[in-house]
Amino acid sequence: MASTVTMTVNGKSVTGAVEARTLLVHFLRETLGLTGTHVGCDTSQCGACVVHVDGKSVKSCTILAVQCAGADVMTIEGLAKDGTLHPMQEAFRDNHGLQCGFCTPGMVMSAVDLAKHNPAPSEQEVREWLEGNLCRCTGYHNIVKSVIAGAKAMQG
Amino acid sequence: MTDTGIGASVKRREDFRFLTGRGTYTDDINRPGQLHAWIVRSPHAHAKIVKLDTAAAKSAPGVVAVFVGADMAADQVGGLPCGWLIHSRDGTPMVEPPHPPLVTDRVRHVGDQVALIVAETRQQARDAAELLDIVYEELPAVVSMTDAIAPGATQIWEQAARNTCYDWEFGDRAGVEKAFREAHHIAKLDLVNNRLVPNAMEPRAAIGDFDRATGEYTLYTTSQNPHVIRLLMGAFVLHIPESRLRVVAPDVGGGFGSKIYHYAEEAIVTWAAGKLAKPIKWTAERSESFMSDAHGRDHVTTVELALDKDGKFLALREHTLANMGAYLSTFSTCIPTILHATLLAGVYTTPVIYAEVRAVFTNTVPVDAYRGAGRPEATYLLERIVDVAADETGIDPAEIRRRNFIPTNAFPYQTPVALKYDSGDYFTTLDMSLKAADYAGFEKRRAEAARRGKYRGIGIATYIEACGIAPSQVVGALGGRAGLYESAEVRVHPTGSVTVFTGAHSHGQGHETTFAQLVSEMLQIPMDSIEIVHGDTNKVAFGMGTYGSRSLAVGGMAIMKAVEKVVNKGKKIAAHLLEASEADIEYKDGKFQVAGTDKSKAFGEIALTAYVPHNYPMETLEPGLDETAFYDPKNFTFPSGAHICEVEIDPDTGVTRIVNFVASDDFGRIINPMIVEGQVHGGLGQGIGQALLEGCVYDPKSGQILTGSYMDYCMPRADDLPSFNVATHNVPSTDNALGVKGCGEAGAIGAPAAVMNAVVDALSALGVKHVEMPATPQRVWQIIHDKRTAKAA
Amino acid sequence: MYNFEYHKPTSVADAAALLAKADDAKLMAGGMTLLPTLKQRLAQPSDVIDLGGIAGLAGIRKEGNALVVGAMTTHAAVAHSAEVKATIPALAHLAGMIGDPQVRHRGTIGGSIANNDPAADYPGALVALGATVTTNKRTIAADQFFTGLFETALDAGEIVQSVSFPVPEKAAYTKFRNPASRYAIVGSFVAKGPSGVRVAITGAGPTVFRWKEAEAALAGSFTPAAVEKLTAPSSGLNSDIHASAEYRAHLVGVMTKRAVAAAG
Ligand SMILES: Cc1cc2nc3c(=O)[nH]c(=O)nc-3n(C[C@H](O)[C@H](O)[C@H](O)COP(=O)(O)OP(=O)(O)OC[C@H]3O[C@@H](n4cnc5c(N)ncnc54)[C@H](O)[C@@H]3O)c2cc1C
Ligand code: FES
Ligand code: FES
A48-107, pLDDT tens digit by residue? Predict the structure, then answer.
């Protein structure tokens, strides 16, 4: 039943054996060892698993690995370049936008996607955009600050 | 203050790994040859197991083993222990039913552990679970506490008549009765403190590992206190000596209390790893978390406050039913008692207080501490009854509080309910909040909202909390079965870098930063040369972990003591090298200096000398520079504060919107203000969640959880919460040398009452006296609708 | 999740053939409903047929006085489409309120209507705008399409290809969200168009329905005041821990009034 799937993950072509039912998140975590993408729920609601597929943020727990054959996938591990944090990551650090860090990869990936389309989001726009990302630690206050600052920093 | 010392908002050192996906949470760990576990759980709230046949499951593809309760019992595996013994008012000890990790004959809540399937993959284990042949004979489920204590109710435990675990009383009953007889006014309120599901974003996970060569067991687990798990699991459940049991709690994705307890799955995977001599991993699905993580709160209370004609509080009494669920979780029994009734004085001078608490078994998931643990419940009932009293006496809510505050010059202050408050200034935090919330200008805003057809309300909550339960002797006298000290080891390496081993555990609190700041400040060496190690029983000598906002007040103090020992030893070495008397050596700016001279030795030189002791006072001093300290506090610490919430309610839909939230808190001395603010925000998020959104609902007949996923359990999202307006006014604690108090739970303690007081205030024009939590749109609309219909009729 | 065979056909005909051949095959569009269902092991299809490889099923185009939206068009595409915003802004607004951004990036109109969740948003738009669903076999008017709780007029083997929305004169959608799941507790789509005034209510009942009394009132005067005094009957409405039937009935009125106000 297993087949192989090939996709680009964080700029590198990867191939691995998967079952039809293997979710992208499990392929990333278990086959590729990219454990930065987390699983926080089983109803597709928490956003701990958000990655980019072909440039769009999606929930990697709600897409099959086989569906991503040939796709370009970016995970949190691919965001920092040469040990330098991406401006959004930097903004989360500067604004204390994370505590336990579990929601953080999904938050950051979601935020980067927002900033790509909306370079100067308002507080309300950020709060609405993050509807699919749950955080239990921060009360979102500093996450919202981080996203606004990160979006600004991404414009250079 | 240096830019990394005490008081600086140093950016967190743990962030880099979390932000780049390099954190290591339990589920990120994979051991060579690892197998996967699936726990088969009861679909029924209460049932007898009449058949349990594992044959088909055992022969399913990939399955390595299937274990049931009888297998564990045959190995003499013990039950999960409860850590706190409470006695009923008649002197009898509480009923402590057995709590086997896998049940043998009866299930007592939906989610109860019935069997373990171990297979090569997780999917295979789960596939095989469906082949397990189990026949249940359903028994009537006891869901609500009032049903549980009714005569003739089905008994969940034979030994617990009327499903009562204990019937506890505390305080001065006679004194309270007298005061009530003589009171000018009595305010009374029935209220419910809604049941919550903690929902740390990282689901629980555990990996058991066994080394055949050494006979050592290792458990990787999502825990707030690995040493406590080692102690409880080793001594009571699996009978493994500490010397052969290592417990590692790596990065942990939030806890909020729910990861304090020793859970069945930890014992199950560790035991099974030994049986199979293979590592076994279990990770909860979120739906499993809803039915297996200990829940929080769930009190049903009647509270009464007696006042004199000037609005001074004369006496307080409460009667509470506290839900324990089907089994006693590790600290469940002390939450509604020791951590609750002792807080009933709040920030007030109420002279006599009496509490009756009856703990009740139901066919629900066990209930234990959740952020605040007992204190939010105390604050909620107190701050609600104070508002009811204010309303009934016509005294402004801010004013009635002020009239009853413990005066700022009265500290240390002995309350009538055992606690002695260290320090505080309740007037200032209240004034700060009133100002920040523009309390004076509120009526204008109310009128303006009314013109738009909206109800606007403002609510105050002033709270006290008790952090870092202590001292151990008192804890023991109160029934605690553990000590509540903390340990620290400060290991100075030959070249002067330092590793600090702490028994506290960080699962979001940023200890790796705060503790390093503390040590950096004390030793005047750069933060970069200090590493903080926690979470591994093989590295850290001992520890009690992190909960009850104790890390800095207890764990930080242990570190401080160990650093002092290092400095004292360093002085001895320096005295030898500098040919001075030890008494003349002072430690300053990272140097051991002969007072009044320019003769000195740098910290690094002393470290090197300690490890290369060529010129060394060997007769009087051992080489090396590595000190351990245990710190047992002499008292709790008592943070306090004033929270003010302003809400606007849309009567057409019942939606409550928070338009402003102000928190002014006293946390004692603050090491890292950025981290402290973050802790407050998080607590507020959870407190507001409890007030407006969250509630665990069971079907009253079947005992099924109706809010078993995020589809129905309403987690606060970013657009449910406002930005917060937080400030501090810090009065150092007088009971510890650091002057710190604790900040982790404040938000969750103050917010529910502030929000609900605002909601009730908003609806007061309709004659509403109380609204239960969570104030969901449906509930609020129904109240408005009923009031309006009654008025029209 | 139980395992299954995965297929990614490149034409509707191939998809239909696969569907006919397999024991118990399921089509997959965005997977935003299907995959959570499979994850919970609530269904066990033998085969999953991914529609993602079929060219031409996604896209938005104007055809005469109608807006045609391909079955595989994502909620995000509808929400951001300049064409939709210009012709039926209420539809873009509705699509932008479905789930969260990540759900909108994958979830599709075809999947949403084929699934016909009682709390879904799109059915309201289809019924109020008098849309027509085109499948690989026929066209079905929206009024006939949604037949009951998770039930549609689609036969086994029928594949939604597009939805055609006549452009209305005015339209608006308001949604009262379930606080936990964010699906619709009540959604009201009002439209004034070629087929008169229509008010479609989603979330409140077992499936989308038209609120005829409101339609009649609004046909007389398309103003919030016209529906101010109306209350929908609560009998037959859904009732759960989040909203009783009575509360839902009340919200039907409130949401409809607000939708009329928003439609201007
Ligand atoms: C967290 C979350 C929040 C959500 N919130 C909302 C919300 O607020 N409002 C709302 O309306 N929805 C909501 N949804 C559902 C979402 O809109 C889904 O996208 C939608 O219901 C299904 O679309 P899909 O493309 O993902 O279909 P799939 O999940 O792939 O399929 C759904 C069903 O439709 C069938 N199907 C799919 N395409 C076709 C076709 N072309 N022809 C025939 N049958 C087909 C499939 O076989 C399957 O049975 C939410 C989903 C999630 C996960
Ligand atoms: S894991 Fe929760 S949405 Fe993907
Ligand atoms: S930082 Fe812990 S869940 Fe967001």
Answer: 999 999 999 999 999 999 999 999 999 999 999 888 999 999 999 999 999 999 999 999
Instruction: Measure B127 CA to ligand 2 centroid, in angstroms.
Output: 22
- Judged by its nearest atom, the ligand closest to the C-alpha of residue A102 is 3
Q: Is the ipTM of this complex over 0.90?
A: yes
Q: Closest to C32 (Cβ–Cβ): which among A21, A42, A44?
A: A44
**Number of folded domains that form chain C:** 2
Residue whose CA lies nearest to ligand 3 atom number 4: A135
Q: Look at B709 and A92 and tell me if their CB atoms are within 8 Å.
A: no
Instruction: List, in order of start, the domains of chain B with CATH numbers.
Output: 31-139+201-254+259-292 (3.90.1170.50), 299-393+400-469+635-792 (3.30.365.10), 485-631 (3.30.365.10)
**C92 is a domain residue:** no
Q: In angstroms, what CA-CA distances link B625 with B467, B499, B541, B588? A: 32, 11, 16, 18
Is residue C149 assigned to a domain? Answer: no
Summarize pLDDT for C195-226 with one digit per residue, the tens.
899 999 999 999 999 999 999 999 999 999 99
Domains of chain A: 3-76 (3.10.20.30), 87-154 (1.10.150.120)
Nearest to C241 among B706, B710, B785 (CB): B706
SS3 content of chain A, % helix, strand, coil (to 5): 40, 20, 40
Can you tell me the distance from the alpha carbon of B735 to that of B634, in angstroms, rounded to the nearest whole number? 7
Mutate to test the interface with C, among B290, B781, B783 (most CBs of C within 10 A): B781
Whether the pTM exceeds 0.80: the reply is: yes
Q: How many CB atoms lie within 10 A of CB B168?
A: 22
Instruction: Tell me, using a 6 A CB cutoff, whether residue A23 lines ligand 2.
Output: no
Residues of A in contact with B725 (CB under 8 A): none
C208 assigned to some structural domain: yes
CA distance B734 to B387: 31
Q: Give the Cα separation of C125 and B705 in Å (integer).
A: 34
The answer to whether position C56 is within a domain reads no
Q: Whose C-alpha lies nearest to ligand 2, atom 1? A: A39
Containing domain of residue C180, as a range? 170-263
Within 49-78 of A, beta carbons closer than 8 Å to B belong to: 75-77
| Token couple for B671 | 């090491």
